[in-house]
Amino acid sequence: MSKNKSSESVKVVVRCRPLNRKEESNGPGGDIIQMDLRLGQVFLRNPRAPASEPQKTFTFDAVYDAKSKQRDLYDESVRPLIDSVLAGFNGTIFAYGQTGTGKTYTMQGAWLDPEKRGVIPNAFDHIFTHISRSQSDKQYLVRASYLEIYREEIRDLLCPNHGSTRALDLRESPETGVYVRDLTSCVCKSIKEIEEVMNVGNQARAVGATDMNEHSSRSHALFLITVECSQPGPDGRKHIRVGRLNLVDLAGSERQAKTGVQGERLKEAAKINLSLSALGNVISALADGRSGHVPYRDSKLTRLLQDSLGGNAKTVMVATLGPAPQHYEETLTTLRYANRAKNIQNQPRVNEDPKDALLREFQKEIARLRAQLNHRKWRNKQKKDRVDGESWERDREEETEGEEEQEEVEKAAEEYVKLEEQRLEREKEAIREDRFLLAEEKQRLLGEKERMMGDLRKEQEATEQLTAKYKAMESKLLVGGKNIIDHTNEQQKMLEVKRHEIAEQSRNEREMQQQMLAQDEETLELRETFTSLQQEVEAKTKKLKKLYAKLQCIKAEIQDVNNEHVTSRQELEQTQNELTRELKFKYLIIENFIPPEEKNKIMNRLTFDPEEDQWKFQPLVPAESKSLQMKKRPTSAVGYKRPISQYARVAIAMRAHSRYRAENIMFLELDMTPPNAASLDRSAEAELNQSPSLDSSPTKDRGVRKSRSWCQTPKSIPSSSSNVSLAACHAATPTAAQ
Ligand code: ADP
Ligand code: MG
Fold this sequence. Notes:
Layout: E1 8-9, E2 11-16, H1 21-25, E3 33-36, E4 41-44, E5 56-59, E6 62-64, H2 70-86, E7 90-97, H3 103-107, H4 119-133, E8 139-150, E9 153-156, E10 170-173, E11 177-180, E12 186-188, H5 191-208, H6 212-218, E13 220-232, E14 238-249, H7 263-288, H8 300-304, E15 314-321, H9 328-341, E16 345-346, H10 358-388, H11 403-433, H12 439-476, E17 478-479, H13 484-488, H14 490-527, H15 533-593, H16 596-605, E18 606-609, E19 614-617, H17 626-629, H18 646-654, H19 683-689, H20 698-702, H21 722-727
Parallel strand pairs: 2-6, 2-15, 7-14, 7-15
Antiparallel strand pairs: 1-16, 3-4, 4-5, 8-9, 8-12, 8-13, 8-17, 10-11, 13-14, 18-19
The structure holds adenosine-5'-diphosphate (ADP) and magnesium ion.
């Protein structure tokens, strides 16, 4: 990969956990790892090799030994990354290592002990402290999501019924890159809220698993934080920058036993390892730099981390190690993996004004609510002014920009409501006491006042609801420069700044030392001048020895890598054999037990979905071809409900014959004998029946369709009942009224 100006490499740090009790009881000689903290080097001793064999040395951006504190790792290696995220970059931190080496401890740690809080809680503190200390013209929106990848399926950990819901899909858009569709995202206003989100997710993770340790060692957990920041730019418009932070606790990197298992178990084992081996392949392809194709699409994890590996992001990898001799092989694999990752180049850039910024939508909604509220308050104030007899009036409520004026309007609006209530109460009292009014009139007036009061209350309630909605919305946006406690705590702030400076310095120092070491080796020969031959021989012998040792080291390394390659190849071959066997078995069943036409039907329905990267069945009858399959109505039947014979047409034209009635229901001559209304001889009814107007009949309002005989003119319809109205159509029979 070519280096350009804005590219930077993935930062790789290594952390070794202390020996645990069980390992300690095995004796003090158990430690196989040594570290040079100043140079950032790790030395690994092979416990089974003779003591003369040289140790393996690896150099990283930083190393943390068993005594290292969570805070040190955070300040030195993570803080700069979070600062970048707050400035609008994408950032990723992932913990890689064997199960039990401290990935979860590093990422989460013990929440209750401030000394042992891991990267994630420290990042929460960092983000929210930064927001509270920033200038007041900045607005922030922070949201969080939590997901896990288990057996190549993505599960939303913030969705209440996470276990039962179906796995989520990955989607890709040109603007945001790869994202998870329908993933829950919680807006967080404080550290407490975001911690709550984390806890909910952790609990969901534990509930879904029968054996937590087993589950967490086989699944990847991704905590995603998006920080959107809006700030007025030099052009006077508000610009939004979006920083996305991925905090990833990977599955245990140890080899899952694949040999000797078959069927479902085999597929499961293959799937569990798939994401991690795909990650390894991606890292290798990127580190190699020569291969054009990077297999991001091989797994869900690599697709999600696509930007973090060789793309638009700043990335820190924390490789965790265990010091016990029995895990020598795994430790070595982890170190090699981490060493390769150092070579990956990323091209981070600030995400400025992306189209999908939620902050902008929030700002628009808040503005809309505020305008609505202002409008209401202005209306009330104007009413009050009218009551007060003031002629001063304004057309546009938006003109109230000044705080004082705003307050005045608010006060006036409140006062108006109070005064109005009092006035109505007084009027009610006056009505009650008025002896000249009739009881009925009194009741009516009181009712009216009551209704007015109800309206007033409703109006007020609506305003209150609107205010609550507005406040809730507004509180989600965090504004800088509001933390008063922080201002009083200057000393602590200074202390923090000093600590960051020290971390920065030690980082620089290490970088310089590493550079010096590399240069030293190159220029050793050039600088040396010898006074005597003897001295020259000595110096050169020393150098020869050194180089020879290095050569041996590299030879051993090559041997190791070859061996590792052979084993993994064997394993892959074995998996391939087993999968081929299974495939042959399936083919055998298909060829011998499934009829060829059935097979063809299934084959024809298969289509490849490039979006989801898998084969899918098409629906049985494709929706778009449905209309083509339906027969068109023959043109001979224009104007009729269905094809109709010539004879039928003639018959209809001649006379309504019962056989052809069904051709058109509208032309039906309904057999409507009038109801026997003789017993219902009421004067009012008779009166109504004589009404000649059809329009005033209630049946019209009721939407009753009037049926008419196709060969007779309509008559006026008496409308005492809908039943009768229908009967009226029957021209042959006179209606009851007639
Ligand atoms: P993983 O997530 O890699 O499987 P864990 O984070 O669960 O491993 O760590 C295993 C155990 O080791 C835990 O009990 C944890 O407290 C302990 N541990 C890991 N790293 C450290 C460390 N740096 N200091 C102290 N204890 C640690
Ligand atoms: Mg873990």
